[in-house]
Structures are given as structure tokens and as C-alpha cells.
Amino acid sequence: MTGNGNRNWVLARRPQGDDFESALEFHEHGNVPAAKDGQVLVKALYLSMDAGTRMWMGPREDGYQPPVPVGTPMAGMMIGEVVETRRPDFAVGDRLRTFGHWADYSVADEHSGLFQKLPDDPDVDLTAYLAMGGPNGWTAYVGIADVGKAKPGETVVISAAAGATGSLAGQVARNLGCRVIGLTSREEKARWLTDELGFDAAIDYRHQNLQHELNVLCPDGVDVYFDNVGGDILNTVMGHLAMYARIAVCGLVSQYADDGKRPGPSNFDQILMKRATVTGFFSPDWFDKTEEIERRIMGWHREGRFTCNVELVDGLENTLKAYHRLFDGSNRGKVMVKV
Length: 339
Description:
β11 (222-227), α6 (231-238) and β12 (241-249) form a beta-alpha-beta unit. α2 (135-147) crosses α3. The protein has helices at residues 53-56, 135-147, 164-175, 187-195, 210-217, 231-238, 270-273, 290-302, 319-324, and strands at residues 3-11, 24-32, 40-48, 75-85, 95-101, 105-108, 116-117, 155-158, 179-184, 201-204, 222-227, 241-249, 277-280, 310-314, 334-338. By secondary structure, it is α/β, with parallel strands linked by helices. It contains nine helices and 15 strands.
């Protein structure tokens, strides 16, 4: 199925800050790649917008994987349909969750990452496999239950709590019997966290004094901090840790675009004073447990105790509009592109 007709976003240069328009170019007449032995050709249905892919664009060279090479299509997670197969275990029409490109067509195999055939269930919304299911849901569960070791009755604080992973992490903590406090950047998102997702409290840190609110809401300290942002917010929360607190570092969105020196938290001494544990974790480290985790969280979903708001942006050509939502504070839950 090779030939012209593959639209794709190419990383033409390393972005400066959040100026993605100057870094990524939309090519409307690219070549459709050919599936080789052991591969499948996938037509994209949905593209997952994830803040961590900002680090893949560079200029940072010290991330958890090398940056996407300049001049090549931008990479990301996706759900697609097999249109050509060179494998006996996949048929044309199968749908799968894998890593591919911001493009109409990608080739994939077991080396792509994930590479999971999805159930042939017409009653299941495919977006669920990039929202509650998939790395956002798995990361939320692992960060709270396994890394954070949250226990019933403990106080859990989550940054970027209205984003895809943060909103799910708060629900995991709630379902485990914890008291949950979300940090977010807008009053309406704070209300959404408490009124619809069942958080016990939420702080709009741009319009409220985070230091003061944590004093009021966490008089006995923070037992588990699920961190998505790093920077000043991490520093502030570290000044409110309970004894033997656990910090699960999921993301550092405030620093992904930074290629200079990054000062450590001035409250670093609290790790010693409170005998705290700080652990960074990355969802691919837990891919061997995905079926077990997904069974549990999707079970909560069927019980009405676990949900994810999905914001769909139509059209591959509008990918950057969707991507910006992750960084300008406008998203609520999971952002995807419907190709």
C-alpha cells in the first residue's frame, strides 16, 4: 500500500519553549510506509496527546529516551486499524494500541512499544483505551498504589490534578480510601475535581496561596504527593510533608523545555527531616502488569467509580491546537486528536 497520501507532522527543528508552530511542519503529501516482515501498517484513528512527548522534541538530551531526530515524523501513542499485515497474529481490520507517528499511517511491531491488539467489542468506546485504560490509567494506578503506597485514611496531594493522569490518580486514591486534594490552575477546574470527581478539596494555586491552603487542608502533613510538574509547586509541597511521606514523581512538565541548569528544591532537607521517599517512575517499566491493572481500573469504571473526561479535536491538521491544551492550562482530562 505504498505511495503518496500520508499526511504527517515532521519535527523540522527543536522548539523554543512552547512555540511548536515554528518547530513542527505539516506535510500533506508524504509517502505511505510499507510494512516489512513482522510489521503491520496502521491507519491512525486517534492520537494521544501527552505532555511527556514535549521532552522527546528536545533540546534536552538527558531524558528517559533520545529526542526524536530532526527531520523525522513526530512520534506518539495512538489507536489505529490494521490496513496491511505481514504478521500471522494480526488481520486487516484489527485495532491496536501502539506507538506510531503523528500521521495518517504508521508501521508498527513489538519494538514500537505497547503493540496491543484491542478487543473486538463494538460496545466499547475506543477512546477508553487511551484514557482510563492505557498509560494514563496505568500510571495513575502505579503512582498511587505501588509507588506512593497509599493507605486508607492518608492524605494524598496531586499536582496537575485536572489533567488526564492527575484526574485519574485522584480517583485511584479516593477508591483506596484516601483523602484527596488536587492542585490545579483554574477555579472552574477545581470545582470539577470536587463536584464531579469526588476529590475532598482542590486548590487553585494561581489565585489562592498554595502555602496557606496546604497549612489549612493538611494540618498533619501530606502522606503521598503525586507530582506531575516539579518546580516551585514541588518545592512548596515538600515543606508540608508528613513523617515517612512518599513522593511519586510522574512528570516534570515545568522543566521539559528547559535545557539549562535546573536548581533543586530549597526544601530538599525535608526528605531527611521527614524520612521521606522520592521515587521517579515511568509507565513502560510496568507494562508487564498492564492486564492486571487495566482489569481493576476498568472494573471501577463499570461500577461508576472511575471515569475520564475526553476532549477530542477533529483533524490531523489540528494536532498542534490539541497539543497546546496540555501546556496552556485549558484541558480538562484527556486530550486526543480524532484523525
